[in-house]
Amino acid sequence: MSGLPEGLSKDVTLANGPEDSISDLSWSSAGNYLAVASWDSKVRIYDVSQTASGEGKALMQFDAPVLSCCWSKDGQKVIGAGADKTARILDLAANGAAPQQVAAHDAPIRSVRFFEAPNTNAPMIATGSWDKTVRYWDLRQSTPVATLTCQERVYTMDIRDKLFVIGTAERHIHIVDLNNPTTFYKTIQSPLKQQTRVVSCVLDSSGFAVASIEGRCAFHYVDEKNSSSNFSFRCHREPPSNNQVKVYAVNAISFHPVYGTFSTAGSDGTFHFWDKDAHSRLKGYPTVGGTISATAFNRDGTIFSYAISYDWSKGYSFNNPQYPNKVMLHQSTDEECKPRTAKKK
């Protein structure tokens, strides 16, 4: 028995997983290859195409915990970044090549993303740091090509096409149009009242989702004319008991790459699939036995990966050697992720 709740009993544990808390998951666009960033100062890359539980293909070693990882658009390169204030890249097409440092900051790098420079299709990297800056990097040079000074420490970032969204401390959200990457298109306060945990761009890059530590999620559209469609909702909360409601941090939002529906996962150890357009939950699961720290869909949305590992939401004292630490692979289905067609009256 897997020890997982009904409906998840067939989920597979990724073999030879990290030795410490898992901070990020990212799938390649070129095949079923999964990158896993961890507090054990490594990014591990797995091939999940041959065996259900995957097999290790490559490893990147850092000098401190890795907080973020990401694949290049062509699925050939993996970048990781973290507490040693560097970002390093591994080219899987260059057999046996060592990882190369491609970025540096004055404080830990919290988030890293590949993107393509407008009108050039040249691969570039954006890094967001606790030094309150975002830096753009061309892989062919060692100094940043530009720097954005943010309102506060960068906690989360996401890029989709030309939309670049940056979430910082103190609930600031910077929106950048990558056609004009060196200025902020606009800066807003998060529509949520508590600390931002994650931002994630919608598939058509018309807006983004944001989630916070208070068990809430919100959708915000970039164009003002769509502002009437902005909304927020409660999730990852327990029903009221003795006039108290337990709320949990929402740690991850992942969009289904085909259907545009999305998942949320949190400190309560549950994950749910949602349809933003119908404002409804498609499927929810009970707790998996530990907090969920990161999630990601593979390139065609048939595998939903989730990391069960301590997320530090209750501080240092709640972590212990017996706490689960593993990546699970869930075969996602249309029933869970496909929008339901409206019934004709």
Sum up the structure in keywords.
Methylamine Dehydrogenase, Chain H, four-stranded antiparallel β-sheet, mainly beta, single chain, 345 residues, 1 helix
Summarize the structure.
With 345 residues, the chain is mostly beta strands. Helix content is 1%, strand content 46%. The chain has 1 helix and 28 strands.
Q: Estimate the strand proportion.
A: over 45%
Structural class: mainly beta
Q: How far is the first residue's CA from the last residue's CA?
A: 45 Å
* Residues in helices, as a percent range: under 10%
**CATH class assignment:** Mainly Beta
- What is the string of helix and strand elements? EEEEEEEEEEEEEEEEEEEEEEEEEEEEH
Spans of at least 5 consecutive residues whose pLDDT stays below 50 are none
Q: What is the fold named in CATH at topology level? A: Methylamine Dehydrogenase, Chain H
Strand order across the largest sheet: 1-28-27-26
Structure characterization notes:
- By secondary structure, the chain is mainly beta.
- The chain has one helix at 334-337, and strands at residues 12-13, 22-27, 33-38, 42-47, 55-61, 66-71, 77-82, 86-91, 100-104, 109-116, 123-129, 133-138, 146-149, 154-160, 163-168, 172-177, 186-189, 196-201, 207-212, 216-221, 231-234, 250-255, 262-266, 271-275, 280-284, 292-297, 303-308, 326-331.
- It has one domain (12-312, 326-332): YVTN repeat-like/Quinoprotein amine dehydrogenase (Methylamine Dehydrogenase, Chain H).
- Helices cover 1% and strands 46% of the residues.
- A four-stranded antiparallel sheet has the order 1-28-27-26, with no helix packed on it. Strands 2-3-4-5 form a four-stranded antiparallel sheet, with no helix packed on it. The protein has a four-stranded antiparallel sheet with strand order 6-7-8-9, with no helix packed on it.
- Strand 4 and strand 5 (55-61) form a beta hairpin.
